[in-house]
Structure formats: C-alpha cells, structure tokens
Design goal:
By secondary structure, the protein is of the alpha+beta class. Helices cover 40% and strands 20% of the residues. It contains six helices and ten strands. It has helices at 2-27, 51-82, 98-118, 120-127, 255-271, 274-280; strands at 150-155, 158-163, 176-179, 181-185, 190-196, 201-205, 210-214, 220-224, 229-235, 247-253. It starts with a helix and ends with a helix. Bound molecules: copper (II) ion (CU).
Length: 281
C-alpha cells in the first residue's frame, strides 16, 4: 500500500513537469485567460520597424523547442509506465545503435540550419553597420553608424545619453547629457553608440525587440526606429548589486518636439543658469 502511494505520488510529480510546461507554453499566448495576467511573461506590444522579424524568429524557435519538449517528455512518461512493469524475461543489453545516433544528430543539425538561414535577413538588417540608419524603404535617414544621434553610456548603475554638440562632436564641452531619460525622434531610424564605463551591461527595450550588450572598451553601433511613446529601458546583464535599479525610459517623441527639447537643453547649457538668475531679478 505504502509503495503504491509512493508510486502514484512520483508519477504525479513527473507528470507535473510536462503539464506545467505545456500550460506555460500555450497559456502565456493568452494572457489573463488560462494564465494569470500578472504572470504573462510574454513580449509587450511591438513598436519598432524590425520587431516583427524578431517575433517571427522567436516563434519559430519556440515552436521547435515546444514540440521537442512535449515529444521528449511524452516518451519519458511512457517509459516510466512501460518499463516500470515487473517482467519475467531477462534484461536486454544494448551496445548502441548507429542508425538512431545518425538520426538524432541529423535532425538537430537540420533544425539548426533552418534557424541559421532564417535569421540571416534580420541579422543583416539589425546588426550590419551598412544597414543602420535607413528607413524601411531603404532611403538614408539623418543618422548613421559613423554619424550617430547620441552615445549611450551604461555604468553602475545608470544609463546616460550624450548628444553631440552642434558640430557633431562628442568630445567637446557642449555635449548634452541626460541620465535615465533618453529622448529620440519618432519614426526616424535612430543610431547610437553603446558604451560601458565599467562592467558588462545590456541595453534592453522589450518593446523595440532590441537587446545589445554594452562591453567595456568597445563602441557598439545600435539602431532602431520606433513609434511615439515612452518605453522601459532595462539592464539585461547582471552587473552588480544595483542591477535591479538600472531602469530608464526611452521617450520617442515627434521630430519637432525632439528638436525643441534639444534646443532647450542647449539654451540651458549656454546660459549657464544666468537666465534663471535674470528671471529671479
Ligand atoms: Cu545591469
């Protein structure tokens, strides 16, 4: 009796793994329905031009691993029952099976090749510097990998956007700096240089489908084109005790509003605070 209870308990425990796995897989596609809204760890709505390509790749890989997961867990559960039965016959010893080994080497290889080929377009569009700063129709935008809108510095534990002075120089004293809040023009291919002041960080804006490591010593050109709105920027690389608070906002605002914001920042910089003093008089 005790053994039976133990066996049933173990079976349920083993079954919970695939059941919860499948629930996570299917349920998270319908947040709030089969899956509590608060735990719906699915992607938020996409607002960037290349986002749909990332989602397609994500779904392709998700289906591949999802099907593999269900299949292998199914076989595992089947084996537990089938080989758990008491048998009278002698155990059969296997010394391997070349045909089987060939199959389970070939199938993953083909799957990896499918992933490798289907990501080529997205990789070129997002990562190649020659593709950066172009509108979706291929025309050149105002920024490029050589002439970026800004530099974004990651450091323990903040994000700092630096906008070039009017002559496009990032080394001068007239550079505009904005911490945590990054402003960029909407519906414009924005290119920036990502750098780190200390350790590894990662620039992650889920709604842009953009995630890029910031590596000390490297200048990494990054780009996106997004719709108007304010979006969460988080650090996606454990970078120290304050990693959790390395959260900023990317404000994508209309182009004219952005120009005005930049001009206001410049005015404040050049006035050196004297405008405020004059007003106070
Ligand atoms: Cu971090």
């Amino acid at each position: 009796m005790k053994e039976l209870v133990l066996r049933i308990a173990t079976t349920i425990l083993f079954l919970l793994v695939p059941i919860l796995g499948v629930w996570t897989f299917v349920g998270s596609a319908y947040p709030g329905k089969w899956w509590p809204e608060v735990y719906a760890a699915w992607f938020p709505e996409n607002v960037s031009t290349y986002g749909p390509k990332i989602d397609q790749l994500f779904n392709l890989i998700l289906w591949m691993v999802g099907i593999t997961f269900v299949l292998t867990e199914g076989i595992l559960v089947w084996c537990i029952f089938w080989y758990g039965k008491p048998r009278k016959s002698k155990a059969w010893f296997s010394h391997g099976n070349h045909k089987l080994e060939l199959i389970w080497t070939a199938v993953p290889s083909v799957l990896l090749l499918i992933i490798a080929f289907s990501q080529m377009g997205a990789w070129a569009e997002i990562k190649f510097t020659s593709h950066m700063g172009k509108f979706p129709d291929g025309t050149e935008g105002p920024y490029s990998a050589e002439q970026p809108l800004m530099e974004v510095y990651a450091s323990q534990f903040d994000w700092r956007a630096r906008y070039a002075d009017p002559s496009g120089n990032f080394d001068g004293v007239d550079v505009i700096e904005s911490a945590y809040d990054i402003y960029v023009p909407a519906d414009t291919p924005v290119v920036f240089h990502l750098k780190s002041r200390d350790v590894l960080h990662a620039f992650f804006v889920p709604q842009f489908r953009l995630k890029q490591d910031a590596v000390p010593g490297l200048t990494i050109p990054v780009w996106f084109q997004a719709e108007e709105g304010s979006y969460d920027l988080i650090c996606a690389e454990l970078c120290g005790w304050g990693h959790y608070k390395m959260a900023g906002r990317v404000h994508v605002i209309p182009k004219d509003e952005f120009e005005r914001w930049l001009a206001d920042q410049r005015d404040a910089l050049y006035s050196n605070g004297t405008d405020d003093l004059a007003e106070a008089d």
